[in-house]
Amino acid sequence: MATSAVTKKALRASMLKTLRSLPESHVTAQSLQITSHLFNSPFLKESKSVSCYLSMPGEVDTSSIVLSVLRSGKKLFVPKVDGGKMYMVRLYGEEDYRTLRSGVWGIKEPAWEWESRRRESATDPDSSGLDLVLMPGVAFDRGFSRIGYGKGYYDTFLANYVNLTPPKEPRKPLLAALSLKEQLLDAGQVPLEMHDVKLDLIICPDGVSTSPS
Q: Low-confidence residues of the chain, pLDDT below 50?
């Protein structure tokens, strides 16, 4: 496990260097292709409740995804980090989205309240939960493994999700990564540790890959 952790650290550093070198226009062009594949997918159309990260420079741009989900009438949840933990809280509309302030790492995130009411969290007792989680990452591989930024926010949230949600029928949401071409490696190149969560889908400029498991 120690060797795996060291390998992940080296791969993360190498990939971040690559991503920082990409021209903004290059990332924008790929983001448009990825977004198109997502919008045409049955899994997005069938989802009533979607979680999507709010992108920062160097990541697949999710701004049009966020606006589209909000306009569709689906529930949209976005990450909020508080006390070293990540929560998924609801955005209520375009005005809500456009007035978000920067939080951890300069990424926009919501306050706990909107219009003097506490936001719905995906783990609230009366929440319908999540159908689809659109995930960021530093690197992915064709074996559906993922490396994040090293804080473990998504792995921890997802590992606890079923236990934290009290629905009558606990379920794991569909996990989909949004990946630039440069981030997608051959199967087996992303090392896994015991706590790492595997992906169900990878959406890249060339299309959508679905895990066989």
A: 1-2, 167-168
pTM: 0.93
CA distance 124 to 150: 27
Among the residues of the chain, which ranges form H helices? 2-20, 24-39, 42-46, 63-72, 94-98, 153-164
C-alpha pair distances (Å), 197 with each of 10, 73, 84, 194:
20, 29, 19, 9
Instruction: Report CA torsion sign: 14, 16, 17, 21.
Output: positive
> What is the helix, strand, coil percentage profile of the chain, to 5?
35, 25, 40
The DSSP secondary-structure symbol of 41 reads: -
Helix (H) or strand (E) run with residue 80 in it: strand 75-82
Give the per-residue pLDDT at 1: 45
